[in-house]
Write a structure and sequence with these properties.
Strand content: under 5%
Number of strands: 2
Number of helices: 7
Strand order of the largest sheet: 1-2
Largest sheet: 2 strands, antiparallel
Order of helices and strands: HHHHHEEHH
Helix content: 55-70%
Shape: rod-shaped
C-alpha cells in the first residue's frame, strides 16, 4: 500500500503554464503594494518536476512578470527595489528548479529500474532460457541485453574448466 502524497506519474509540463497564469493573475489582482514571495515557487517546482530544466528554468524568471505588469500599468512606484526583489527571487528559484528537475529525473530512473527488476522470470529448469512477454523462449544473455544496458563477455569458471578438461581428456 502506498502512503503519502499522491503525485501523478506523468502530467504535461504545459499545465505549469496554467499554474503560472493563475499566479500572475493573483499577483496582479492584489495590486502593487502587496507581494506573495513564494507565489511563483509553485509553477517553478511543477514545471521542473514534470518538464525538467527545459520548463523549470524559464519558469524561474516568473518574478519578473511583476515588474512587467507594474511597468505596463504605468505605476508611479520606484521600480528599483521591485527589480532587485525579482532578481533575488529568480536567483533563488534557479537552483530550486535545478534540484527539483534532478530529483525528478532520478526518481523516474529509479522507478524504471525497479519496474524492470521486479516480478518473476519464467525460466526453464533445464536449458535456463527465459520466456519473454510474447511467450518466446530466449537465451538469458539476449533477454537481459534487450532490457538493460548490460553486455556480456563469456569466460569459464574454474570448476567448469576442470570439468571440461576432464571431458576433453576422456574424448582423446
Amino acid at each position: 500500500m502506498r502512503r503519502g502524497l499522491a503525485v501523478p506519474e506523468r502530467l504535461s509540463p504545459a499545465y505549469s503554464l496554467l499554474v503560472a497564469a493563475f499566479a500572475i493573475s493573483l499577483n496582479y489582482s492584489v495590486g502593487p503594494n502587496l507581494e506573495f514571495p513564494g507565489l511563483f515557487l509553485v509553477p517553478v517546482v511543477f514545471a521542473a518536476w514534470y518538464g525538467g530544466l527545459k520548463w523549470g528554468l524559464p519558469m524561474s524568471l516568473l518574478p519578473f512578470t511583476r515588474v512587467l505588469t507594474l511597468m505596463a500599468e504605468g505605476t508611479q512606484l520606484d521600480l528599483y527595489p521591485i527589480v532587485i526583489s525579482a532578481v533575488v527571487r529568480a536567483i533563488v528559484y534557479v537552483p530550486i528548479a535545478l534540484w527539483v528537475a534532478t530529483v525528478a529525473a532520478a526518481h523516474r530512473a529509479l522507478k524504471q529500474e525497479v519496474e524492470m527488476l521486479e516480478g518473476l522470470l519464467p525460466i526453464c529448469s533445464y536449458c535456463k532460457k527465459i520466456r519473454d512477454d510474447a511467450g518466446e523462449w530466449q537465451v538469458v544473455e539476449k533477454y537481459i541485453q534487450d532490457r538493460t544496458a548490460a553486455t556480456f563477455s563469456h569466460g569459464i569458471c574454474e570448476p567448469c574448466l576442470r570439468e571440461q578438461e576432464a571431458l576433453w581428456q576422456q574424448a582423446k
